[in-house]
Amino acid sequence: MKAAPFLYVKPKSIDEAVALKERHGASARYLAGGQSLMPVLNFRLDRPDLLIDINGLSELRGVSNSGSGVKIGALTRHAEVAKSEIVKSQLALLSECIPHIAHPAIRSGGTFGGSVALADPAAEWPACCLALDARIVLRSSKGERRVEAKDYFLGLYDTARTENELLIRVEFPAVAAGTKAVALELARRRGDFAIAGVLAQAKKTGVRLENVRVVFFGISDRPVRLSAVEQGIAEGQPMETIHQAIDAGINPDDDIYQSGATKTHLAKVLLGRAVEQLRQ
Amino acid sequence: MSEQMQISFILNGERKQVLVPMRLHIIDFLREKYELSSPRVGCEHGVCGACTIRVDGELARGCLMLAVQADGKTIETLEHLTQTGEIKDLQEKFVERNALQCGYCTSGMLITAADLLKQGKPASREAIRDHLSGNYCRCTGYEAIVDSIEAVMKKRVESGKRAAR
Questions:
Q1: Beta-carbon separation of B45 and A99 below 8 A
Q2: Which chain A positions have a beta carbon within 8 Å of B115's beta carbon?
Q3: d(CA A73, CA B42)
Q4: Per CATH, is B4-81 categorized as 3.10.20.30?
Q5: For chain A, first and last CA: distance in Å?
């Protein structure tokens, strides 16, 4: 359970970090909060020759307003997202996720950008990116490029980020005032990765729910947005019809704890609770 | 680049300058170099919480932090919390309430509970359990641990109120 030998370097600028990664390529890893990379190294599931510790790049840390939206620097800790007044007032969906994100000792270390870069299918931040049409900003020596969340998550731990690109921040467009957000998940222990999770967001106008967004996570190889489910909720369709849309839209694999059928069932249960909360 | 790196950090109130191997996580380093036995090497993948330490005043998983990353930081282990008396009441309550059996998780439990206690606010049993959710105990069933923290919290909040009067 000890990491294989590696070299460690802590660059002082983004340019230096990216140049190092481009020089060493696939034998180097960016190290952010380390809450996922370090276990992988300790298990020797990965044996890079070089760790490029980006924690010295303070310009990558913090939440701020950008135009009408919000940008979150890649090195912003989960605990900092939790405390951010900007997030509380403008990105309610993220605030709703906080209680489900790991434990205090991990929230202080784990980073927003690290979670989005890793793209664990059961993680909350990637699901939020998809639900809120975020743009992921990637940096290489050629400059910056932005990828829409819907084009970014490609599969199990697979994203549009190429080997050497550094995820530097995530940009969220403004969320309409009065939008209600719910984040629900089931896990064996509070803060552990979700067996199944759902994010739901809508604006309540009279008895109707408008601008409905629904993203499931923990039930596929990536977060999944189902527009048929969103439409069903907006149109006030019966839950049985919406369940059919879930059956058509997801097909979870069995894992060592739950069957795929159980996960689908739990996704339906969570969605039912989420819609109930949105309607309140 | 060599496989070792010079770092400077504050450990339990004392400035240290030392050469550390790059691949070493900070728990092995603290235990082997400074013979600090409170942070445990448990699961070594961030699940059990037995390695919990304070880094710049915040809780951290020691097994997921490299020793070289201590450079420029302030590291505190349970030994320091014991020495300063910060959690004397909690430690006494753990003994009184028998909130441990094998003791392996206890350092992590105490340091994590201290983090909640220093917020100075009353918390429900559910909130206490949530705060401890990253720390496994395989002996006690948690009940006595939660009891101890709840009792100390109540006492501290009460004496805080008295002091404010």
A1: no
A2: 104
A3: 32
A4: yes
A5: 49
Distance between CA A191 and CA B132 in Å, rounded? 10
Give yes or no on whether A60-172 and A179-279 have one common fold.
Answer: no
Architecture of domain A179-279: 2-Layer Sandwich (3.30)
CATH architecture for the domain at A60-172: 2-Layer Sandwich (3.30)
Interface contact flag, B134 A55, Cβ < 8 Å:
no
pLDDT tens for each residue of B72-102: 999 999 999 999 999 999 999 999 999 999 9
> Chain A contacts of B72, Cβ < 8 Å?
none
Q: How far apart are CA B24 and CA A216, in angstroms?
A: 38
Q: How far apart are CA A210 and CA A202, in angstroms?
A: 6
Which among A101, A35, A36, A91 is positioned nearest to A63, based on CA atoms? A91
CB contact under 8 A, A189 and B133: yes
Inter-chain contact B23–A4, Cβ cutoff 8 Å?
yes
d(CA A216, CA A247) in angstroms, rounded, equals 12
Collapsed DSSP state (helix, strand, coil) of residue A169:
strand
- CA nearest B52: which of B61, B43, B42, B64? B61
Write down the ipTM of this complex. Answer: 0.94
Distance of CA A239 to the CA centre of its chain: 27
On chain A, the residues whose CB falls within 8 A of the CB of B71 are: 10
The answer to whether residues B65 and A38 touch, using CB atoms and an 8 Å cutoff, is yes
pLDDT tens, position by position, B104-150: 999 999 999 999 999 999 999 999 999 999 999 999 999 999 999 99
| Widest Cα–Cα separation across chain B | 60
Q: Is A278 left (phi over 0), alpha (psi -120 to 50) or beta?
A: alpha
> Is A3 in contact with B25 (Cβ distance < 8 A)?
yes
Report d(CA A18, CA B25) in Å as an integer: 25
Q: Are A126 and A194 a contacting pair, CB within 8 Å? A: no
Closest CA to A62 of A73, A48, A70: A73
| Shortest CA distance from B132: residue in chain A | A103
Kindly state whether B23 is in contact with chain A, defined as any CB-CB distance less than 8 angstroms.
yes
